[in-house]
């Protein structure tokens, strides 16, 4: 809608996990490095925690890209609000299997799925593929049986090496939930976290997304310094809030035929769209 006005090739502030838009602040680089190490060194289990909207899902997608799609088989399980361990297992098996799974009643049984998962893990490993399971929004799991099921899949090993890497992503309350399953907690080899961006990083984050979207570097800035400060103050450094505010500001700026987004425009958007 506003792309031509601002000289973009695409919208820069979509709240979708597109790895091209990942801005590597120091904390994001640290998390990527640690999680990559967890995978490549076969450490078994890693955990990434952060508040809602800080970029955990996007970082997970970028991690898989960095590892190379030709080198990994991955299951990315989002919002795992399953009622039974077999449902969670089935989602994992579907992600890791190179072939579509038949819909058989026997496949709904946890024991059958565990056998199938073990066979898939072994086949993938023999093909030189890393098996990676990312459970996004793990903190939403309420049933302790599901955490126990996650612990059990870490028992799959070959030649004293883990056949898969399990990465648990979630909000800070995930820490306590994992600690409630002591055997699982003891398997977590890597722990990292994401927090809000600093004011300097917010400026760089916005600049990065504008560049990826195709904005020429010459000419008037899209957001002036006062606007950037206002975005930081409103968002608290949370990327999802930054994206929402900047998207609405660009739309309003387009409607007003503005050449630059200033602090007054940002303030009016916060008020008009009830973002406060």
Characterize the structure shown:
With 276 residues, this protein is an alpha/beta fold. The protein folds into two domains: 3-9 and 197-272, Helicase, Ruva Protein, domain 3 (Orthogonal Bundle); 26-194, P-loop containing nucleotide triphosphate hydrolases (Rossmann fold), CATH 3.40.50.300. The chain contains twelve helices and seven strands. The strands form two sheets. The protein has a five-stranded parallel β-sheet, sandwiched between helices. It has a two-stranded antiparallel ribbon with strand order 4-5. A hairpin with a 2-residue loop joins β4 and β5.
Topology:
Blueprint lengths: L2 H4 L19 H15 L4 E6 L5 H12 L4 E6 L7 H12 L13 H17 L3 E6 L8 H10 L3 E2 L2 E2 L2 E6 L3 H6 L2 H6 E7 L4 H14 L12 H11 L3 H17 L7 H10 L4
Parallel strand pairs: 1-6, 1-7, 2-3, 3-6
Antiparallel strand pairs: 4-5
CATH architecture group name of the largest domain: 3-Layer(aba) Sandwich
Number of strands: 7
How many structural domains in the coordinates? Answer: 2
- Main sheet strand line-up: 2-3-6-1-7
N-to-C order of helices and strands: HHEHEHHEHEEEHHEHHHH
How much of the residues is beta strand, in percent? Answer: 5-15%
- Which CATH class of the largest domain is shown? Alpha Beta
What is the CATH T-level topology of the largest domain?
Answer: Rossmann fold
**How does the overall form come out from the CA principal axes?**
elongated
Q: How far is the first residue's CA from the last residue's CA?
A: 25 Å
Poorly predicted runs: none
- CATH homologous superfamily of the largest domain? P-loop containing nucleotide triphosphate hydrolases
Relative helix content: 40-55%
Number of helices: 12
Structural class: alpha/beta
Q: Could you tell me the mean pLDDT?
A: 94
Largest sheet: 5 strands, parallel
- Radius of gyration computed on alpha carbons: 21 Å
């Amino acid at each position: 809608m506003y792309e031509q006005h601002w000289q973009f090739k695409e919208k820069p502030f979509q709240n979708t996990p597109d790895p091209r838009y990942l801005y590597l602040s120091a904390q994001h680089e640290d998390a990527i490095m640690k999680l990559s190490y967890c995978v490549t060194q076969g450490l078994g289990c890693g955990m990434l925690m952060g508040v809602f909207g800080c970029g955990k899902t996007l970082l997970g997608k970028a991690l898989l890209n960095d590892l190379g799609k030709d080198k990994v088989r991955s299951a990315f399980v989002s919002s795992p609000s399953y009622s039974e361990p077999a449902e969670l297992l089935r989602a994992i098996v579907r992600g890791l299997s190179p072939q579509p799974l038949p819909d058989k009643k026997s496949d709904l049984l946890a024991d059958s799925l565990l056998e199938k998962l073990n066979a898939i893990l072994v086949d993938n490993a023999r093909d030189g593929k890393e098996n990676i399971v990312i459970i996004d929004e793990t903190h939403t799991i309420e049933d302790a049986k599901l955490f126990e099921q996650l612990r059990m899949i870490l028992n799959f090993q070959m030649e004293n090496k883990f056949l898969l890497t399990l990465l648990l992503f979630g909000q800070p309350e995930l820490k306590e939930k994992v600690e409630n399953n002591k055997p699982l907690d003891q398997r977590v080899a890597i722990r990292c976290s994401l927090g809000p961006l600093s004011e300097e990083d917010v400026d760089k984050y916005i600049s990065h997304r504008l560049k990826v979207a195709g904005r020429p570097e010459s000419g008037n800035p899209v957001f002036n310094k006062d606007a950037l400060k206002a975005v930081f103050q409103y968002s608290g450094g949370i990327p999802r809030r930054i994206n929402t505010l900047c998207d609405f500001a660009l739309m309003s700026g387009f409607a007003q035929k503005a050449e630059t987004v200033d602090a007054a425009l940002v303030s009016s958007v916060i008020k008009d769209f009830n973002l406060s």
